[in-house]
Amino acid sequence: MIAFCEECGEKNTLPPSAVTEGRAVFQCQRCRYANAFPVNVREAPSPIHTERFLAAALSCPGIIGAFLYHAEKKVLGADMPPGLTPEDINTLGDGLVSGYEDGLCACPDLDGMTAVISDKHFFVHRITPEVYTVMVTAGQPLPGGFLKQVPELLKGR
Fold first, then answer.
1. CA–CA separation, 82 vs 84, rounded Å?
2. Is 38 exposed, middle or buried (0-12, 13-18, 19+ CB in 10 A)?
3. Which residue of 87, 105, 143, 153 has the fewest CB atoms within a 10 Å radius of its CB?
């Protein structure tokens, strides 16, 4: 979300967590003024079909793991390689989403992010203001066209 400081007019990019109970609360990046003002709260999005997304992701050649991450609720569903605990996946989600959000501050039109950890490629994409997909491959790019299918997979159509 983009919000302008009431004191100096600076454009601030806010993470979803800055909007709670219909109010945007943030400190201006430039003048440090504490802003708090009402915002329109959107209707709740349709349910996310986690199992359908995970099944489709893992059926694609090259994808070895995937999970959905919610900014506040943490991991919504995961099918990751053995050896990772739920805490490991939550920590991974925290770090990847934080890195993606930091990138959005510099490049607001950022569509996705790739992080390489060891020999694995982690692809992070925002689906809704609070929900992200993370897909893992063993060193190759995502299968062509899979990202275009993700919104429909999550809707369950």
1. 6
2. exposed
3. 87
Of 132, 123, 114, which Cα lies nearest the Cα of 70? 132
The percent of residues above 70 in pLDDT, for the chain, comes to 90
CA 27 centroid distance within chain? 22
Q: What is the pTM of this model?
A: 0.65
Confidence of residue 28 (pLDDT cuts 50, 70, 90): very high
Residue type, 115: A
Structure tokens at 20: 């709670």
Return the number of other C-beta atoms located less than 10 Å from residue 126's C-beta. Answer: 20
Residue 131 identity (one-letter amino acid): V
Rounded to an integer, what distance in angstroms lies between the CA atom of residue 29 and that of residue 95? 22
Burial class of residue 9 (count of CB atoms within 10 Å of its CB; 0-12, 13-18, 19+)? exposed
List own/partner pairs for 99-106 with CB under 8 A and 24 or more apart: 99/124, 100/124, 100/126, 100/132, 101/15, 104/13, 105/13
pLDDT in the model for residue 32: 94
